[in-house]
Design brief:
Elements lengths: L3 H14 L2 H10 L4 H23 L7 H24 L5 H8 L2 H11 L7 H18 L9 H22 L8 H22 L9 H29 L1 H6 L3 H12 L7 H25 L24
Helix pairs in contact: 1-10, 1-12, 2-10, 3-9, 3-10, 4-8, 4-9, 5-8, 5-12, 6-8, 6-13, 7-13
């Protein structure tokens, strides 16, 4: 029987992550640089997570080896965050977020061609659908088409996050708790972004109170809240079903882009989004489909191919 509490947590997770453009685009339009935005986002998130750990009495202690590994792995996480925000300057935010959502497909490809994991019909079908989805998003009927620079950046964001997931899964930090992993990755990301901000001339302050609000909401809603609800969802319904419900992420981002920022939404865009969502769902469900599970048994699966349950989606 479906655990409705876990279902709600999973929907909240994906919906809140999809709100990243809602708080990011106004900051970019206000003239803030990407490193400054990302520094404030993750610095505020680290403070919030630290307060949560203090009041819940959860230990954030790690070994020096784990700390070093987290610092190295955070480079991939940083790449994913920077490429995604950078792509917003070339693509409609909904399209960019949808392309980044392809990361489970990239995980499957890396696992097959680098780690020689067994291929499957369902995975290959998902890859074909994903390519078709990207093609549909690229050809949207608009005058001048879509920026291929933006497409490349959005895809690189997904590739970086897919590589991050696999690297964490293959490293010594695989079995540490999600809150510890998230706390330190966010902390290292904030530190590197601080350096990046000063390399561009200095850390920018928020130009007005609206920017202060957007920075705080960016750290709270699609970063801290989405992470906490994800962990709760995985515990109640498993990582596979929680990942499938992640289809809300591009839908939310696309809705925000169209309704709030008046981004175009064409028939080919709709088809592209739909194909990518189906592709990602197939990748996530591929192990169960290969084993011949019935739909009602998907809830009992606790591992996604190449993805450890403690690893959070990009938030």
């Amino acid at each position: 029987m479906l655990d409705w509490k876990g279902f709600i947590y999973a929907v909240v997770t994906s919906a809140t992550f999809g709100l990243i453009p809602l708080f990011t685009l106004p900051l970019l339009q206000a003239g803030m640089h990407i490193p400054s935005i990302l520094f404030y986002r993750f610095f505020i998130a680290v403070l919030m997570l630290g307060v949560c750990a203090f009041f819940t009495r959860r230990s954030l202690r790690v070994t020096w080896r784990e700390l070093y590994t987290l610092a190295v792995l955070s480079v991939l996480y940083i790449g994913s965050a920077v490429f995604l925000f950078w792509s917003y300057q070339y693509l409609a935010s909904g399209i960019a977020t949808t392309m980044m959502f392809l990361y489970p497909v990239f995980v499957a490809l890396i696992m097959i061609y680098v780690f020689k994991e067994k291929n499957s019909f369902w995975t290959m079908a998902a890859i074909v659908l994903a390519i078709a989805g990207v093609a549909m998003l690229s050809w949207n009927g608009q005058e001048g088409g879509v920026s291929f620079t933006g497409i490349l950046l959005a895809v690189l964001s997904g590739v970086s996050y897919g590589a991050y997931i696999i690297s964490v899964n293959k490293s010594c930090v695989r079995d540490i708790s999600s809150d510890k992993l998230t706390f330190y990755v966010f902390a290292f990301t904030a530190l590197v972004m601080l350096g990046g901000a000063y390399a561009l001339g200095g850390l920018q302050s928020a130009p007005d109170w609206k920017s202060d609000f957007n920075l705080t909401m960016l750290a709270l809603i699609p970063t801290v809240i989405s992470n906490l609800t994800l962990v709760a969802a995985i515990k109640l319904i498993g990582s596979t079903f929680a990942s499938v419900l992640g289809a809300m992420e591009p839908l939310t981002a696309m809705t925000v882009g169209v309704l709030v920022f008046h981004e175009p939404f064409t028939r080919s865009t709709a088809w592209g989004v739909a194909l990518i969502i189906v592709a990602v769902t197939l990748v996530v469900m591929a192990p169960a489909l290969e084993k011949g599970y019935r739909t009602g048994k998907f809830l009992y699966i606790t591992k996604v191919k190449g993805i450890h349950p403690n690893i959070t989606p990009y938030h």
